[in-house]
Structure formats: structure tokens, C-alpha cells
Design brief:
Number of strands: 0
Largest sheet: none
Number of domains: 2
Radius of gyration: 26 Å
Helix content: 55-70%
Structural class: mainly alpha
Distance between the termini: 75 Å
């Protein structure tokens, strides 16, 4: 009889066991700095040159954002219910919690962005 080995040798060694090469670390650092520079430049271009996204404007405000967030959340909950099919009544508590989480998220997002 032939004996089976206890350990099966992995044909591909695990790459996580090796440290990241220095060249890759330098490349990731430079890439991160380039991305940050592009984002800062884009912010400067949009706000200073084109006059968009100016931080001094009053914006939408939380009251108007709350009303818009309720409308968006109701539409999303209806869409989720239609897509879910026959499990809608059993998932009612999850949908109610999800509704309030979405209202809070969309209120803050709309008030901060717009």
C-alpha cells in the first residue's frame, strides 16, 4: 500500500509570507502623493477658477436635506420591497431600521454636499 502524505504541498507559495519589496513601497507612496495632489488641485480648480463648491455658501440646510432624504429613503425602501419579493413582511423590522439609517445618512450627506 502507498502512504498518503499528511501535508499537501501547496504548488503556489503564499505571497503574504514575504515582505513587500522596497520598490513597491516607494511606488505606493508616490502614487498616494500624486492622488492627494490631484484632489487638492481639483478642489482648487473647481472652487477658485470656476467658482464651484465654494465653502462660504449657506447650502441646503438640514431641514431641506431632511425632507429630500425622506423622499429618497421611501423610494429606496419601495424599490427594495419590490425586488425582495415574497419575503417583505418577514423583513419589516429590518426595513424599518434600514429606513431610519438611510434617512440619517442621506440627511447628513445632502446637507454637507449641497
Amino acid at each position: 500500500m502507498t502512504e498518503e502524505p499528511n501535508e499537501v504541498k501547496d504548488p503556489r507559495p503564499d505571497v503574504r509570507d514575504k515582505p513587500m519589496p522596497t520598490e513597491d513601497k516607494v511606488l505606493l507612496t508616490v502614487l498616494g502623493l500624486v492622488v492627494v495632489a490631484v484632489l487638492v488641485g481639483l478642489r482648487w480648480l473647481l472652487s477658485g477658477v470656476f467658482g464651484l463648491a465654494v465653502g462660504a455658501s449657506s447650502g441646503v440646510g438640514f431641514r431641506d436635506a431632511f425632507i429630500a432624504a425622506i423622499a429618497v429613503s421611501v423610494l429606496l425602501i419601495i424599490m427594495f420591497t419590490v425586488v425582495a419579493g415574497d419575503g417583505a413582511l418577514g423583513e419589516l423590522t429590518t426595513m424599518i431600521i434600514g429606513f431610519f439609517v438611510m434617512v440619517a445618512f442621506f440627511t447628513v450627506s445632502i446637507a454637507l454636499i449641497l
